[in-house]
Amino acid sequence: MKKVSFAEFGGPDVLRLLDAEEPHAGRGRIRIAVRAAGVNPVDWRIRTGQLQGIRPVELPAGVGHDAAGVVDEIGADVEGVRLGDQVFGYGANTYAEFAVLSAWAPIPDGLTFEEAAGYPSVVQTALRIIGQVGVRSGQTLLVSGASGGVGSAVLQIARDRGIAVIGTAGAANQDYLRGLGALATTYGDGWVERVRRLGRIDAALDLAGSGVIRELVELTGDPRKVISIADLGAPDFGVRYSGKSGDWQEAVTEAARLIARGKLRIPVEKSYPLAEAAAAHIDSQAGHTRGRRVLVV
């Protein structure tokens, strides 16, 4: 099979599309013929070696965790899924023609493989950090860097829970944020005062790692009410850096429920062939994403 891999840390040019042995579903796992794989910022952070101190990988390494496809192998002790089922979920080395998933759910009606592949990690992250920051119904959450995949999920999940949201993003994405139910403003000079004019901030999330931790603490008045998923220096300000953890099966199942209820929809900004994984990483790393980027197999 074809698989994207890298043998050294570095820029997107270290990614290679290689022939590799097919993986197989072990106990409690399924294998899918991948139709689409989600591209997440964590993928290129791992590729550059940024996360080696907290999420070490052994080289050479595959890439990717999110995928959607057709079940073609079922491991021992797995129930409720059949060969040929169309599923989306979380696994390992998903930038490939075949991948093993450890958490999955049926693709909701009306979703393409490309759309479904973009949900697992962003929904798991959104659920996790909303819970960690402790924001409740009736309160206001500030989301810095709100237009990407995680931000799109946070805004919609928060709205479903009765939480008001203020989101910052580039000028081109202001209407997009408003369409997801958020009060929106741009980042850049004067952004703190623009946020203050929109309302009191009870909690804040840093999704972009753009050096705004100090200001988020200032706006909330408490570093414990700020969570970052993108700034490794956040603990210097007493702010928690939240890496991937939690119940992946619960997150994928909840994603399917929210989609089916019409409470969650994340657009695919751009799709790329598997051979163009490097281009997808370049675009992801540049930011300004509206929704998700995916690889098509």
Automatic annotation (TrEMBL):
<feature type="domain" description="Enoyl reductase (ER)">
    <location>
        <begin position="10"/>
        <end position="295"/>
    </location>
</feature>
<keyword id="KW-0521">NADP</keyword>
<dbReference type="InterPro" id="IPR002364">
    <property type="entry name" value="Quin_OxRdtase/zeta-crystal_CS"/>
</dbReference>
<keyword id="KW-0694">RNA-binding</keyword>
<dbReference type="InterPro" id="IPR011032">
    <property type="entry name" value="GroES-like_sf"/>
</dbReference>
<keyword id="KW-0963">Cytoplasm</keyword>
<dbReference type="GO" id="GO:0005737">
    <property type="term" value="C:cytoplasm"/>
</dbReference>
<comment type="subunit">
    <text>Homotetramer.</text>
</comment>
<dbReference type="InterPro" id="IPR013154">
    <property type="entry name" value="ADH-like_N"/>
</dbReference>
<dbReference type="Pfam" id="PF08240">
    <property type="entry name" value="ADH_N"/>
</dbReference>
<dbReference type="Pfam" id="PF13602">
    <property type="entry name" value="ADH_zinc_N_2"/>
</dbReference>
<dbReference type="GO" id="GO:0008270">
    <property type="term" value="F:zinc ion binding"/>
</dbReference>
<dbReference type="GO" id="GO:0003723">
    <property type="term" value="F:RNA binding"/>
</dbReference>
<protein>
    <submittedName>
        <fullName>Zinc-binding dehydrogenase</fullName>
    </submittedName>
</protein>
<dbReference type="GO" id="GO:0016491">
    <property type="term" value="F:oxidoreductase activity"/>
</dbReference>
<dbReference type="InterPro" id="IPR051603">
    <property type="entry name" value="Zinc-ADH_QOR/CCCR"/>
</dbReference>
<dbReference type="InterPro" id="IPR036291">
    <property type="entry name" value="NAD(P)-bd_dom_sf"/>
</dbReference>
<dbReference type="InterPro" id="IPR020843">
    <property type="entry name" value="ER"/>
</dbReference>
